[in-house]
Amino acid sequence: MTRILPSWFVERVNPVPDEDDLRVSTLELFFDLIFVFIIAQFTAIIAHDPLLGLLQATLMFGFLWWMYAGYSWLTNVIPPVRPFRRILMLCAMAGWLLVGLTVPAGFEEGSVWLGVGMLVVAVIHGVLYSQSTNKVGSVVLCNILAAFAVIASQLVDDGPWRYALWALSAAIVWSVPIWHGQRGLNLHPAHITERHGLVVLIVLGESVVAIGVGSRGLPIDADLLIAAILGLVICSCLWWSLFVRDMPGTEHVLKATTDPVRRVRKVLAGLSYAFVPVLMGILVLAAGIEHAVGHATEPLDLASTLLLSGGVAMFMLGTAGLRLSMPLPRPWERIVLAVAVLAVAPLGLLNTALQLGAIVIVLVAALAIEGRRATASTPALSE
């Protein structure tokens, strides 16, 4: 494909840098800031209607996460070191901003701008990839077809067809690895791990923002402070559970995987598929925190209790998937932890602080036990 393109477009791709030289650029960090806005929109949708909003957010996020993760892969293969690539990345940011602005209208008739934004994102993604390889043509085509499915969802009458078309857009893109073969990419472990980790950090920041949103207009009292502090502790435990050992372990495993295809498949399973429940879990938790802040000494409704415990449980199941796919030690511990967090959900029907405190106790105890076992078995990795 690149042979028929003009020389000013191709720009001569640089030799693949050494893994230690490839770092996440400031442009990529700037690019990720757009995701903060999109995540905030999803949190608001779930907080407004925990049942229907969660369904809608899941369907939209299914497609959007594929495309957003695709840009992490893109900058891993095509570092944005030349002016032309940087300009295209900034244009893609405009497409993502359009998506963020229109996400709340994603299930409203006539809101075609969300699909238009995704089409811009998909086309620029393909243009940038064409500078490196012609083996992703089918992937780019599927991305564009999925964007058109989103546009079609905005043109049909309100009802099951809209949900079906959103589900179709996600199914199109997530089915690509099944038949594509994952050849033609040589991912750099340090960069791809750091890039996905930064996205999780950004989304975790949304949980902290949710504390501020939930406290808006409320008096500074025990109802506010207890829920806010416990919510922050829970977010801190989620960070600890992923970044202290699992993400460094992931980078170590990917570096040890010398076969490019096997490495790609590990990244797909561990950092793409498994990160769907990781990220959705944070969104669900953030929506629950919005409901809990300011009501620490009061009981919660059933939906809010399920958002709090369910969000943490989803996150832990996602980390279990990461451990299974790499593989990393003891994935079953995270499954047990998810069940334990769900088991304390009924406490919120009695008192909000009681449920939040119970979640904190379960998380801290589990992480302490994990830390002792990791220190005993692999002291060098646990330091």
UniProtKB/TrEMBL annotation:
Keywords: Membrane, Transmembrane, Transmembrane helix. The keyword Transmembrane helix applies. The chain crosses the membrane at residues 29-48, 54-75, 87-106, 112-129, 136-155, 161-179, 199-218, 224-243, 264-286, 306-324, 336-369. InterPro entries: Low_temperature_requirement_A. This is Low temperature requirement protein A.
